[in-house]
Predict the structure of non-specific serine/threonine protein kinase.
Amino acid sequence: MNTSTHLLPANTLLDEEGNPDYDPRRFYPARIGDTIQKYQIVSKLGWGTGSTVWLAKDTNCWPWQTNRYVALKITNCFERDRKSAKDELEMSQHISHIQTVHEGRSYVRLIQDSFTIPGPFGEHLGMVFEPLREPLWLLGRHLGTVGLPSTILKAFLKLVLKGLDFLHSECHIIHTDLKSDNLLLGFEDGSVINDYVRQQKENPPQSKEVHGHPIYQSRPDFGGLRKGVGLLKISDFGAAVFGNVPTPHRHDIQPEQFCAPEVLLKAGWTYSADIWNLGMVLWELLQDISLLDGLGPESDRYSREAHFAQMIGLLGPPPQELLDRADSATLSSLYTAEGEFKHPQLIPSEAFTFSDVTPFLQGEDKRLFIEFASKMLKWLPEERSSAKDLYNDPWLSFRSAVDH
């Protein structure tokens, strides 16, 4: 495949080069057209601080078989990146070995193959996944809406809750990173990938080469929806942990704005941290907003203090029972010895009830949604509903007159 007509100057930053911590020695020097194990690289789908992801063709198919494409994730060679990938592989293998008839297994994305790839500066781990189309939040753009219409989100949430119940109840796994980018939709039709592959051959991506290291522009866009949507899958288990441990976990997890109160307080967390996390994601999926962003009234930087103050504004003061479990150093940054919250000026001064922060829903749909969300967003982790209980919540089956 000739990409010479698309070469960029060496001083033009491309994809991962834009990261201030970018180090080319970490990344595997993959080239479009190369075959790694039995997978021939077609295009670059994306990148992160610890890996690149490629669409690749399985070359072991017989000529009369339909082409099989995979997503090939190649981790960086530095030990920290490889450790995260190995943790994800361990979780995927654990899930794969569980004998179950639980429907939720269908909504979890697993690693299909893995292998070590030698590189110029160390070993990389290659992990093969089913290729998926895009994150759930992008569906709103296809529909021409800001966020997802509630009737559409409800259908997908039932799948997420099925998958989460499977992870919690049968796999004993806490995901810890339930952001909308990790809820991925499959392809509605096999022709979407075939057309995409043909387009990559006809119009190769921009690329550059620095000291023998190739860098390609990502091509994650598979075009508009053709008919319906594919299956939803929960993905990315790089930060997942086991929940069936003797003592609760206490290390930091979750995207900052989605952190559960027990995580902020270092009070010990378990499966219900995922439930809070998912509750926070609802506003992002419905309206593309952060319910609690952790930004103070005069600051554009996240702070634990502002985030906790917003929780107080929404839920009222936390119960003493929760504060008693908190790490002493963390608690002292939030409360005086007399039990007074140190940062009252950070508590939202305007109306900040569930009703106020949900202006995009109306009537009975809004009332039932607030009841649904309130079961997930509770101070005490043990008072939150489980994924299994939430699956049958009235809001998920409610259809307004507009939906019919």
Notes: Confidence is low (pLDDT under 50) at residues 1-5.
